[in-house]
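User: I've been trying to design a sequence by hand for this structure and keep getting stuck. Would you show me what you'd pick, starting by listing the structure so we're on the same page?

Assistant: Good idea, let's start from the same input. This is the structure you sent:
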């Protein structure tokens, strides 16, 4: 696999060599094409876009956002009742159930990264008197007890 001295060989390489009894790994029989690889710009497994019509006069559109300590990404901590953002679902309870804790990854087609970025974009839309708002949310589905 490589010409490194034994003390510099990585543990995963040592393991592969042991599995093969010191023999080199056999070459792949099939060629791999570039079409078999996919790349995503979004690190989340599931994202959806929810569109709402602006109904109130709030620069944050009634979204309370926070910054994730690990990734520094913006996520929703609360949605005010009877507000623009509350209209994403039929009831306030279902909006909170589906949106609370979701990462905000896009606003009106533009990528959002941090909390300050999201607040700035929402404020710009408010200043432009936007009539519609499209929020791209990355919702991580809650694990069942069997999956934990």
């Amino acid at each position: 696999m490589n010409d490194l001295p034994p003390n510099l060989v990585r543990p995963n390489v040592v393991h592969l060599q042991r599995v093969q009894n010191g023999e080199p790994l056999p070459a792949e029989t099939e060629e791999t094409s570039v079409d078999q690889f996919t790349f995503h710009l979004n690190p989340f497994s599931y994202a959806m876009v929810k569109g709402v019509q602006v109904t109130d006069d709030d620069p944050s559109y009634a979204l309370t956002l926070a910054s994730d300590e690990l990734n520094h990404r913006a996520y929703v901590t609360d949605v005010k009742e009877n507000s623009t953002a509350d209209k994403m679902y039929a009831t306030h309870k279902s909006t909170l159930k589906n949106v609370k804790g979701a990462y905000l990854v896009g606003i009106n087609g533009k990528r959002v990264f941090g909390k300050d970025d999201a607040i700035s974009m929402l404020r710009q839309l408010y200043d432009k008197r936007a009539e519609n708002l499209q929020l791209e949310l990355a919702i991580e589905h809650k694990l069942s007890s069997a999956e934990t």
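That's my pick for every position. To get oriented when you compare it with your attempt: The chain has two domains: 6-32, 47-138. The chain has a mean pLDDT of 84.
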